[in-house]
Amino acid sequence: MSRASVLKRFLRKKVRRYFFTGLLVLVPVWLTIIVVRWIVGFMDGILVRMLPLKWQPEQLLGFSLPGIGVVLTLLLILLAGMLATNYFGNKLVKASEDLVYRIPLVKGIYTLFKQLADTVLSSDRQGFRKVVLIQYPRMGIWSIGFVTGVSEGELQRITDRRVINVFVPTTPNPTSGYYILVPEEDATVLTMSVEEAFKLIVSGGMVSPPDRLKGIPVAGSAASYFPQAGEDL
User: Fold this and answer.
1) What pLDDT sits at residue 123?
2) What is the DSSP letter of 212?
3) Confidence of residue 131 (pLDDT cuts 50, 70, 90)
């Protein structure tokens, strides 16, 4: 093989390596910028347009002010929290909810999102506090799930074993998935955090969290404890 061919092959390998390394560096940056710009633009388009025309930045300052929708959203959240934590604000929130519950179609939609928000965002929530490994959809195939609580009432009464509520998300969209009931002893609690599990699911397994128990032998299939209903997970 001639020296020119060797040099050409070397340069081709280097260029290919540099190209894919550049993609690994720039693609996350580009996607982050695109998502942030979309969120800022979406909030600006909704909240800013809700302001009276004379209070909009274009009218007050003579030019648009990107990001003002994000600021208004944060202020709105803080204001709602301040109102809901005092006596009169709490009464107003309950009165508003009572009014919503009287509207047939709106009642169902509001109740669904209310329960979801209470589960995910509440400071004393029990859901999404543990990441578990289960054999699903059949024995021999493993899936990652999130414990959302211990089953209660009829579901727990008619099963021959104590079961827990598990949400199994889909890839790459973890907001959709399946709700399944799993016997407590068949779920193995993982050391990874909820955030790490979400990254693993969204990336399709390409971003794996560190093994914090590396070198420690695994004893049994499910050495974990799930508290009774009402206890903290």
Assistant:
1) 52
2) T
3) very high
Would you say residue 132 has pLDDT above 90?
Answer: yes
Helices (H), 122-164: 153-157
6 and 27 assigned to the same domain = yes
Euclidean distance between CA atoms 92 and 70, whole angstroms: 26
Same domain, 1 and 76: yes
With residue 145 as reference, give the H or E element that holds it: strand 142-150
Sheet order of strands, 163-169 included: 177-183, 163-169, 142-150, 130-135, 188-189
Please state the pTM of the whole predicted model.
Answer: 0.53
Q: Which domain covers residue 103, as residue numbers?
A: 89-125
Q: What is the mean pLDDT of the chain?
A: 78
Q: Are 83 and 95 in contact (CB under 8 A)?
A: no
- Cβ atoms 81, 117 nearer than 8 A: no
Instruction: Say if residue 223's pLDDT is above 50.
Output: no
**Who has greater pLDDT, 226 or 19?**
19
Asked if 129 and 123 touch (Cβ cutoff 8 Å), the reply is no
Residue 232 lies in a domain: no
The answer to whether residue 212 is domain-embedded is no
